[in-house]
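TA notes, week 10

Several of you asked for a full example with nothing omitted. So below is the full record: structure tokens for the whole chain, then the designed sequence directly under it. When grading your own attempts, check the secondary structure regions first.
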């Protein structure tokens, strides 16, 4: 129930559009997103489906999805460079940052650097040997990707004893610093 109320996208200083996946055929303006009624029903709203499942055309690292579950029909959403340019012009945006796909080097630039895909998970599902990445957006809106290589963390997270000692569980109650 909580996920039905969460934001679907955000902007940074009205210049960088951040979204899970993409824009698709049904998203032309930021108002299209703001006007989505909540709670959302993912399967009944084409705009929501575009935001959660849309992928850039020609994303050569995207694997063709061949599974057979409730999300299979949703995974065939794409947006073109022309759609990207139109969306960015209509909304006075400089960049789209998305995170839906696994990318080999942690991040990937597309459409003349207008779209950046980021994958924060290293070695996704312990099978892809991909690097992970995060993006820092500086005050001047300069974007700086940071990469965590697959080799940097392979043994840390799989050793249970090491994990307990170095990464204690999250406290159940919050507290104020200094109290």
């Amino acid at each position: 129930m909580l996920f039905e109320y969460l934001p679907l996208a955000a902007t940074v200083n009205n210049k960088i559009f951040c979204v899970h996946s993409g824009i698709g055929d049904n998203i032309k303006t930021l108002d299209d997103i703001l006007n989505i009624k909540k709670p959302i029903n993912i399967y009944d709203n084409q705009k929501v489906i575009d935001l959660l499942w849309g992928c850039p055309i020609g994303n050569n690292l995207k694997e063709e999805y061949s599974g057979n579950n409730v999300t299979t029909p949703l995974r065939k959403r794409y947006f073109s460079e022309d759609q990207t340019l139109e969306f960015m012009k209509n909304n006075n945006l400089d960049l789209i940052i998305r995170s839906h796909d696994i990318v080999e080097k942690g991040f990937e630039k597309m459409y003349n650097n207008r779209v950046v895909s980021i994958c924060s998970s290293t070695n996704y599902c312990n099978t892809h040997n991909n690097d992970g990445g995060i993006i820092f957006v500086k005050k001047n809106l300069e974007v700086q990707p940071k990469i965590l290589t697959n080799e940097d963390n392979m043994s840390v997270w799989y050793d249970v004893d090491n994990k307990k000692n170095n990464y204690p569980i999250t406290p159940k109650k919050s507290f104020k610093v200094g109290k």
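The first strand starts at residue 9 and ends at 12. Use that as a sanity check on your answer.
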